[in-house]
Amino acid sequence: MFRDTLTMAKPRITTVGMGLIAALFCLYAAVFIYNTSFVMSGTRYFTLFDDAMVSMRYAKNLAEGQGLLWNPGGEHVEGFTNPLWVMVMALAHLLPVSAPHVSLIIQILAVGILLVNLFVCKKIADLISDNSTFVALCATTFIAFYLPLNNWSLQGMEVSLATLLLSSSVFLALKSLRSDQFSYSLLLLLALLPTIRLDLIVPATVIIGVLLLAQKNHRKTYVLGLFFIFLTILAQTAFRFRYYYYILPNTYYLKMVGYPLLLRISRGAYVALDFILKINWVLFSVPFIVLAIRRNTANALLVSLIAAQIIYSIYVGGDAWEWWGGSNRYICIIMPAFFILFAYGLDRMRLRALSIFPQLTKPIHGLSGVVVLVSLLNVNATRGAESWGEWLLLTPPMHVAENQRQLKQALLMQQITDVRATVAVVSAGTLPYFANRVAIDLLGKNDLNIAHGDMRTQSGMDQFTYFYPGHLKWNYAYSIGQLQPDVVIELWMIPIEAQPYLSRDYREVTLQRNYHMYLRKGSPNIRWDVVQAIQTH
Questions:
Q1: CA-CA distance, 282 to 237, in Å (whole number)?
Q2: What are the pLDDT digits (tens) for 309-326?
Q3: Any bridge partners for residue 515, and if so which?
Q4: Which of 252, 455, 502, 529 is 20 to 30 A away from residue 109, measured at CA?
C-alpha cells in the first residue's frame, strides 16, 4: 500500500517541482531582461549583445525592404552566421513596436524558447534515468539557472533556438533508440540545425552517426537524413553565392583565414582546459564516468555530443568572449545534456549510498542537497565568486554598460550628422542599429576587404594563447584613409596606426564630456553648429 502511494506521489512531486522551476525561471528571466535595459532621454531602451544587434540591423533592413544588408544600398556582405534567427528577428521588426523595444520582443521569445527547452530536457532526463524525479528536477534546475546559457540567450543570440532544436533532436533520437523506430520529425530538425548556424552540422552529424551505428535496420533512413542535411547546406550555399558572391559567410574569412592552424588550435585547447578547470574537473568528469559505468547508446549519444562540441570549439580557437568565463557559445548549447548526465551520476551515487547505509537516509538526502547547491554555485562561478553577483541579478549582465554608451553615441550621431554621413565603428551592433547611418566596420565583420585581409599575430609564447576570433583584422589605411568616414567613433588596438590619417584629415573632439571622437574636417555631412554647442572644451 505504501509503495503504491509512493509511486503515485512521484509524478505529482515531479509536476509540482517542474512548475515551481518554470515559474522561478520566468521570474529570473524577467529580472535579467530588465537589468539589460536602461533609460535614456526619458525612454527605456532594450538592447541585445552587440553581435546580436548586428543581426538585428540585417533583420531591420530586410523587414524594411532594403535587402539582407548591413548598410541599406551598400555592399553585399554576409556579416551574420545565423540566417534562421535573422529571419525571426525580421518578423519582429514587422510588428508595430518602436525601435527601443524591438529587442524586448526577441528577449521575450528567448524566454519562451528556453522554457520549452526545460520541458524537453525533462523528457530526456526521464528517458535516461527511467523517470527519476531527482534526475529530472536536479537537471532542469541546473539548466534553468545556468548563467552562460541564459546570458547568451536572453541577450539575443541564436543560442536559445539552437539549444531547443538540439535538445528536441536528442529527445527524438533517444525515443527512436528505445522504440527501435525512426522519426521523420527528427530528420527535419537535424536538417534545420545548420540554418540556425552553419556549424551546427557538427551535432547533427554526430546524432546521425550514432543512430547509424545503433540501428542498422534503419540505416537507409539515416543516410537519407544526411542527404537532407546536405540539401539544406547546399541551398544556403547557393543563396549565399547568388546574393553575396561567396560560398561561405564573411565571418568565416574573418575568423578562420590567415591564422596558423596550430596556433588557433593551441588557443582553443587552452580556453577549453580553462573552462574545464573553472567548472571543476571533478564535476566535468561525472558524465564520462556515467558512460564508463553504464555503457549504453543513450549515454554514449549525450557524451559524444558534449565531446564533439568541445572539440569543435578547440578547432575554431574558442570564442571571443572567453574572458567572461563559463561555456562559450559553441559549448553552452550542449550543456543541458551535460547537466542531465551529471544529475544522473549524482542520483546513482545517492542511491548507492542509501543501499549501503539505509540507516542514514536523512543525512544522505541532506548531503545530496548540499552537493547539488555547491555544484550549482560552482558551475555559475564563471570568473570566480565575483560572477555570482551577475548570476544572482545583483549586477547588470555583460556589456550592458557598453550598450548604454553606444546608444548614447548613436543618439549623438543623429544630432551632429545628417542621414548621408558615414560612421566608422568597432562595435558594429548597437550604435549602427540606432544611429541609422551608413557604417564602416573597422574589424571587418561587415567588410569584405578587411575580412579577406591579413590577420595580426603575436610572437613568443603568447602566440599559443592569444588568438582573438573576429578581432585580429583591421586596416586603418583602408577604412579611414581610403573610405574617409565622416566620423570615427572608436579605434581598435594600436591606435597609433590611425594617427597619420586622423591628424591629416580629422578634428578631434569631445562631446558632452565623455564622448571622444574624430570628425572629418570640412565634412558637409556634419552639423558643425551642433558640434560647437555640445563640445567640451
A1: 42
A2: 999 999 999 999 999 989
A3: 511
A4: 252
